[in-house]
Design goal:
alpha+beta, 5-stranded antiparallel sheet, 6 helices, DNA-binding
DNA sequence: TTAAATGTTTAAAT
DNA sequence: CATTTAAACATTTA
């Protein structure tokens, strides 16, 4: 999925498009994508969307007293369609540009003014859950999230992370430590700060952790500015695709030269995820 | 055919 | 209790 920048891009776009629309009805063909019962379904009909925002990677569509929580996981997308206008982002598949619904469509919301919102999810890991807005932060999906990666101060990041006795990449991916970072931006920020992803967080210097936090924040901001990493088929409100993947330093550049020293980028599994790094700059082995 | 894919949760082991 | 690892979820593409 979509990490923080992609989620932020979706949220910003939808927050300009969805508020004011009422839910006329909706359907879903995969109950795990929208696990609600008939009573909950009735409660949603007729509600008006008030705003769209996020906590970590969880998208929140507020409908007054109720809210929908959306997690895109690895391959989820949200696509808004109204007449010829289309806005969507998430995993790069043809679903963002071809006719909808398609075979990855799990949920369709029919909205007022002939608008529709599609939740597509090829691998079916994503979900949409219903909660009361005033109990939002107690919902298990967001209750344990750490401070947001985009706004945490480098000093606070260093203080929190330095107490952890696990690998620094595992820390970056742990949403209870910092919320929002995922595999791409973990690799990118670790390369920028020249840190070995397997180093124990507690063994890193204060300087290194501050540097890592600064680089993580700057790469997240750059990606948001470029429309995220949905390189293929993401369309912003102006019909422009996400450009961030044109700027990656290590992610999916296995075998290509390091942009700092020329050594070939390697891939290894760290914290259970494919990890891309420069063996020289990041002192691997 | 095998590996890997922008994520999280859970069980089992250390 | 903290951490690590593997597996699970489900599907497509290289």
């Amino acid at each position: 999925m979509p990490e923080l920048p992609e989620v932020q891009v979706v949220v910003s776009g939808l927050d300009r498009l969805l508020p004011g629309h009422t839910i006329i009805d909706f359907s879903f063909d995969w109950p795990k994508s929208l696990p609600i019962d008939a009573a909950d379904k009735d409660r949603l009909i007729g509600l008006k969307i008030s705003k769209v925002w996020r906590l970590g990677k969880v998208i929140i569509i507020e409908l007054g007293d109720l809210s929908l929580l959306v997690h895109l996981k690895l391959t989820g997308q949200l696509v808004y369609v109204k007449a010829k206008k289309r806005f969507g982002a998430g995993h790069p598949t043809a679903s963002l540009i071809d006719a909808l619904p398609d075979k990855t469509t799990r949920v369709v919301f029919n909205l007022s003014d002939d608008a529709r919102l599609f939740f597509n999810d090829l691998r079916k890991f994503g979900w949409i859950k219903l909660t009361q807005t005033n109990k939002l932060r107690q919902h298990q999906a967001v209750a344990s999230l750490g401070p947001d990666a985009l706004t945490i101060t480098p000093a606070r990041f260093a203080k929190i992370v330095s107490k952890r006795h696990k690998g620094i990449k595992a820390c970056l991916l742990d949403q209870t430590i910092v919320a929002g970072c995922g595999n791409i931006y973990a690799d990118e920020s670790l390369w920028m700060s020249q840190i070995n992803p397997e180093t124990l967080a507690a063994n890193l210097s204060h300087f290194e952790l501050v540097s890592l936090a600064k680089n993580l924040k700057s790469v997240l901001r750059l990606s948001i500015q470029k429309g995220g990493s949905t390189s293929r088929n993401y369309l912003n409100a102006q019909g422009q695709p996400g450009q961030y993947l044109n700027f990656v330093k290590v992610y999916q550049r296995t075998g290509q030269p390091c942009k700092r020293c020329g050594q070939l980028i390697i891939r290894k599994v760290v914290a259970g995820r494919g990890t891309h790094c420069c063996p020289t700059c990041q002192k691997i082995q």
